[in-house]
């Protein structure tokens, strides 16, 4: 019996692997993508980067302006994430099976989460750009809407996984709905929720660079401006500062997760 199951699984994995290979080659053929030509272009690309993306003294003179825009981007990402987290918590409480008030509120909550999550942040930026123009509000709202969708879904799953024992115990004592939520549901899921918020801060700092290119704000706008003027030395410095900022935020986030989880 076990041998038959193993053979079946081996056959399924083999077919899956072959299917992936066929799908890959089919995609390359449809898009006219050449694997060999791409590999041949790598040395030339590396040589171009080594000869052009070099930080010089003139680029270092732009560092104060770069740091100002970088801090603007980081703080905008943090603000968008934390404010979105508050709204997401409310929507998650309404949408979770454990704390759902009624099916109508639950359906609306899940619909809002699904709509905002399934539309990419870049698309939200372009949609909001038509209404608010190129300013920091557009970038903030694009990150905010995308974050609401992701965190609402994550918070709903966190609340659904909470142990029902304490919830049933409080209900048996005659506790009100909000007492159950504040004393049983939220405390159990809070560490995981904080972890998701930290994850979204990291993600939004990365996304904010692209959003800034589209909305003309933050470090993304500065990157786009110097890239279009072919000032690659400053572009290299901007890229380095973004990478270092993301790594620093990620290290701090990992340290906090270890403490709370």
What topology emerges from the helices and strands here?
Elements: H1 2-30, H2 35-52, H3 57-60, H4 63-95, H5 103-118, H6 121-132, H7 136-160, H8 164-172, H9 177-215, H10 218-228, H11 232-260
Helix pairs in contact: 4-5, 4-7, 4-9, 4-10, 4-11, 5-7, 6-7, 6-9, 7-9, 8-9, 9-10, 9-11, 10-11
Quick structural summary:
It is found in: Cell membrane. InterPro entries: MetI-like, MetI-like_sf. Helices cover 86% and strands 0% of the residues.
Q: What is the CATH architecture term of the largest domain?
A: Orthogonal Bundle
Instruction: Tell me how many strands there are.
Output: 0
State the share of residues found in helices, binned by percent: over 70%
Mean pLDDT: 84
- Identify low-pLDDT runs: none
Number of helices, counting only DSSP H or I runs of 4 residues or more: 11
What form results from the Cα inertia axes? globular
SSE pattern, N- to C-terminal:
HHHHHHHHHHH
The largest sheet is: none
Transmembrane segments: 12-30, 74-94, 115-133, 205-223, 235-253
GO cellular component, one term: plasma membrane
Organism: Bhargavaea cecembensis DSE10
Subcellular location: Cell membrane
Explain what this protein looks like in three dimensions.
This protein has 11 helices and no strands. The chain is globular and about 70 Å long. It folds into 2 domains: 2-42; 63-260, Orthogonal Bundle (MetI-like fold), CATH 1.10.3720. Helices cover 86% and strands 0% of the residues. The protein is mainly α and 261 residues long.
